[in-house]
């Protein structure tokens, strides 16, 4: 089965879900009032889904892998910022555990997808 839209990628859907979770958590005080951390974690979580989408739209595996690598890095940044939010008492242990579960699962999926693309015979629309 061929995927023709980035919206159909499971990793993009998972990244979108993470982004929504972050948005919900950062709307609560006192997290909302820490403008720098709030904006930083929103930005890094949004970067995950945006880089997956941008890489997909490039139509070639090399560029897609490059953007997936950036998305994976932003995922790690989001996970690190989650610890900081917990350490500052902005989120509960349960909320932290949920974020860690989401980011760890997403990081593995992105990593596995990168491996798949590196080993794939298909090289994207540019190479047909």
Fold blueprint:
Elements: H1 10-26, H2 35-57, H3 61-87, H4 93-119
Helix pairs in contact: 1-2, 1-4, 2-3, 3-4
Describe this structure in words.
By secondary structure, this protein is mainly alpha-helical. The protein has a single domain, classed as 23S rRNA-intervening sequence (de novo design (two linked rop proteins), Up-down Bundle). Helices cover 73% and strands 0% of the residues. The protein has 4 helices and no strands. It is elongated, with a radius of gyration of 16 Å.
* Count of separate structural domains: 1
At CATH level 3, the topology is de novo design (two linked rop proteins)
State the CATH class. Mainly Alpha
From the helix content, strand content and strand pairing, which structural class follows?
Answer: mainly alpha
CATH superfamily: 23S rRNA-intervening sequence
Name its key features.
de novo design (two linked rop proteins), mainly alpha, 4 helices, 128 residues
């Amino acid at each position: 089965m061929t995927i023709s839209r980035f919206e159909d990628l499971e990793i993009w859907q998972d990244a979108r879900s993470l982004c929504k979770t972050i948005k919900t958590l950062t709307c609560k005080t006192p997290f909302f009032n820490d403008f720098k951390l709030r904006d930083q974690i929103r930005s890094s979580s949004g970067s995950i889904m945006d880089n997956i989408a941008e890489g997909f739209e490039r139509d070639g595996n090399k560029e897609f892998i490059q953007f997936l690598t950036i998305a994976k890095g932003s995922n790690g940044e989001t996970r690190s910022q989650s610890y900081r939010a917990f350490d500052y008492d902005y989120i509960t242990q349960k909320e932290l555990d949920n974020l860690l579960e989401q980011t760890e699962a997403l990081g593995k999926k992105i990593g596995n997808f990168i491996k798949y693309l590196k080993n794939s015979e298909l090289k994207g629309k540019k190479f047909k």
